[in-house]
Amino acid sequence: MLNSDLYYPKELSWLAFNERVLQEAADKKNPIVERIRFLGIFSSNMDEFYRVRVAEVKRQIYIHENEGNEVAAQQTKLLMEKIQQKVKNMTDAVDSIYEEIVTKLSRYNIILTDKDNLTEFQKEWLISYFKNKILRHIAPILLHKKVDLVSRLNDFGTYLYVAIKKKDKRTKYATIELPSEEMSRFIVIPPEKSRKKKHIILLDDIIQLCLEIIFKGFVDFDELEAYSFKMTRDSEYSINNEIDESFVEKMSESMKQRLIAEPVRVGYDGDMPQEMLDNLKKRLKISSYDSLIAGGRYRNFKDFIGFPNVGREYLENPPLPAINSKVFTQFDTVFEAITHKDILLYYPYHRFLHFTEFVRQAAFDPSVKHIRLNIYRVANKSRIISSLIDAVDNGKTVTVVVELRARFDEEANIEWSKTMTDAGIRVVLGSPSFKIHSKLCVVSREESGELIHYAHLGTGNFNEKTAKIYTDFSLFTRNQDIAQEAIYVFELIQLPYRRTKFQHLQVSPINARTKIQILVRQEIQNAIEGQDSGIILKVNNLVDQELIDDLYRASQAGVKVSAIVRGMCALNAGVKGLSENISIISIVDRFLEHPRVMVFRNAGKPKVIISSADWMARNMDNRIEVGCPIYDEDLKQRIIDILEIQLQDTMKARVIDPEQTNKYVRRGNRKKRRSQVEIYDYLKELE
Fold first, then answer.
1. What's the chain's average pLDDT?
2. 563 near 554, Cβ under 8 Å?
3. Residue 437 CA: distances (Å) to CA of 93, 239, 420
4. Does residue 437 carry a catalytic annotation?
5. Looking at 370, 437, 456, 594, which residue is catalytic?
6. What is the pLDDT of residue 3?
């Protein structure tokens, strides 16, 4: 059997995932404001896809060509062509969906206008607004031979390419970055007559309207012409291994490298004249493998994630207020609650406040002696870190492991590590060999002369912001075996060459792969012996070929495998003789599905594990990840119930078939079931 028959290309699978996001933008059953926000999510995802996935494919082409491996080079070029064609189709769809949404918004009296459709009153107001609010943030780059445009562009920015035309003289060019970091990209224009209609204009159009104000008096021109463009560059980096550089300094240098990395995509306004486009391509040093993508007037839909609802409440999803955990709320302290029983939270359905309160109380509790926590991504204004600093002020030992290589959060994590070090926190800067991706916090408390450990093990980051939109499990436990092994993980990070045996936890790269394979093979044995067998798997990405092979073998032995995969999936499900007992769905809805969970039926005694690790080679072999068994029978059943609700979704679930066509699950005569809403109702009933 060919490799392509066994494994679907992960890059094309990632695009299939983002196509599911685009389906949500196209879905007329979604509230109109949510639809335009999905365009923003789609755009943000596509940026990361190019920075990471396409950049890697491009590098592989160069490597194969340099090595003289023509077969591999041609295969990789073919993959790149498929990627580019798929992206082109989706880009065309984005522009079409956007126009349809704009038309529908007008029916709700929300008018997205542009510079060509303004009244005199609106023009006057916008020119005044530009002079008083926007102009201070504008600093054009006048282009000449000595300006290296690639190095001057911000990878996250949106730009106007401006042609400065003077009769009988050569056209000059400039770029203007939209100051969307300093202000909203969406400006609500005051009503001229009717207050019923709300007019919104994009920052892009205001700047184009006021181009003459920017350049007048500084350059001679007869005409100014501007079109939008956006560049995406390779996010990969290499770290200089000079002995005299500290790890932080190396990371800081790598940030500089990213700023001048080569472009892998340039999106531009399709109406840009060919002469301007040729000049832009020349200045950006576009290679034959870079993606040059024409589109509509607006580049970088990412900002549409924050599109304001200036209309009725029903134009966006109704709120689902976060639920209080009754176990936490019925006790005076978090430690009494966790002593009473293990607690499982499921964000964003439950309040993330329960975790921040866990850290806050630990910070001033006189009995607490040591707090350990690892950071991958945290909020810009982190209450957690504030509490850790308070803990130091209260005389406690605080150890924080900071992963400096959390993609696109490196700079923030460097700053946090400096802030915490200055405050007296013992900061461990990850491991040079492995990314630290586990989600651990252990509080050690003196009780009756004995040191008792309270542990948190989860699937998501300690980030107050993302906890409102990412679904993730958090386990709080006083089980000393699990808590002690969590402490061993912190020791492993600091002393990676010390041999440690983990009896309970799945720890990458120590034993996670082996433990998973043992569990899968036990299900195979159970199926062969006629005992109860089956696997439910929920991950973000399923691309590790060794683990996929194990699932294929399980299927062939008669083990029913049900998987929920949000993103990349290389496993070809439902193929006769290979995987007919495997079914996979993907759910895209108002919350981003983020947990990693495994359920093994285990002859009627289910084993349930939550984990920080996706089923990818990097997560199994090149990162420190932690999977934790759930021992409390009630909590086990709760997780199984939640997964079963998702597997019965008939509204937001798509089938992941071998062609990854993203067809919705057929409802047939079944009732409509939207799992995210149903899970909320289920958890609310429990509390």
1. 91
2. no
3. 35, 19, 19
4. yes
5. 437
6. 61
